[in-house]
Design a protein that fits this description.
alpha/beta; six-stranded mixed β-sheet; Rossmann fold; 526 residues; 22 strands; globular
Amino acid sequence: MDERKHTGSPLGTPHGARPDARTDIGTDLGIGDVLPQVRLTGVTKRFGNVLANDGISLSIMPGRIKALLGENGAGKSTLMAMLAGRFKPDEGRIEVAGKAVDFASPREAIAAGIGMVYQHFMLVENMTVAENVLLGQEGGFFLNPAEMRRVVGGLAERYGLPIDPGARVGDLSMGERQRVEILKLLHRESQVLIFDEPTAVLTPLEAEALFAALRAMSAQGKAIVFISHKLEEVLSVADEIAILRRGRIEGEFLASEVHSPAELARRMVGRDVVLEIDRDEVSAGRMVLDVKHLSGEGLEDVSLDLKRGEILAIVGVAGNGQQQLVEVVCGIAEPQAGEVSILGKSWADFFHSRGWKGELAWIPEDRAGLATGRGLSLTDNLLLTTREGFAHGQWLERGRASETTRGIVRDNDVRPGRIEAQAWQLSGGNLQKFVLGRELYREPRLIVAEQPTQGLDVSATEAVWQRLLESRRTAGVLLVTGDLSEALQLADRVAVMFRGRVMGLFPVTDTAQVERIGSLMAGLRD
């Protein structure tokens, strides 16, 4: 953990801050007379009748890493979108370096020194690292290639972001691509950097490298906002923590005041949250999935099997064949080579006569785009995969579908609890709970759950974990996840993928193999 939290005054003196700077928030967190890089005062944002942010006041200090936590739908994304220039506040005031701002676009926010690193990178894959960093920068392409590499290489070295400036972006790992996005903001001299779930696509080693870079940036005076639902990460990297609940700041405190992830979860949710799930033993039953030597379309000689009563976790950095495997298993893509058997049938026979109930359920990673229709009500979203169950001849029994939807919403605590609500009006966690409830209503014998808790708060994660564990009694679960703690909590066995190959497949009780997962995710067998 960063030693800055435990030396001097409660927060010490922010690195890179001017000792003569003045502020009126000295008593907030014991920071002293330091000017906030950003100050939000009474910021409010409404979307129709929904109050997303309610009078939020918050200071972001130079040389500090502030973690922003909250349940799904608490208002974190909306708040940061206003700071990044994507939304305008309805009320309140935003100050940057002591001056009031009124951003009309993200470009204006960037010009004011505020940059955001999103989960989905915006890079040109055929260009080099240096070209991507300097793309759109004044005078950037007037430099010769050698000078471009020198400039970007020096910036990378200064902030502890090791990367080859001459490398083609398309050849980089996800962690390296993230470094390019960070370098773009640093070259623009951004003083505030916002990271939204930055480790979702990283290996454990890449995540540790990112944390080291965040500390280096804050040590040189940058103000960092770190948004994550992984509470262990928050406690390892943050100086300060702010919690949002239902659009309001619920509390602010030092990370050093919190002694465990469980305590942090309790502060965030307002109740005890079970972060470790007790797994009841379930006897393995019939084979529900059997993959033998599957190759083609980014896959190479993949073999694995899954029985009813067990969870098999597929882990690895995004982009290493997991998506291609899911598409074959779920019938989106046909196997190019090898054999795939589902519920005792060949791939072709299964998808030729597939029914809506008692067979295969898919919970896609893209819950807002692929799993649901954003502009459809929850009842209509139920019918997307269950329509056959409510069809009576040429008639559709909408009344019965509505009653079923109400039951799913009630049993899965989907908020706000109105079946007339459209999918886009639900937070990520509530939408995921609805999708899971809908798919389990189909009583599947094979469940493919793709990143089922990515971006979810601890409360929603707890609910999803419990439902997946319960489903083992009647189904086998193929769990595709980039979260190792999730894999080890839920799975009976783990398969590690790298560049389309299964690098290892072993039970979670094999501690020697489990310790090698990080290396296997990076392609290292020995």
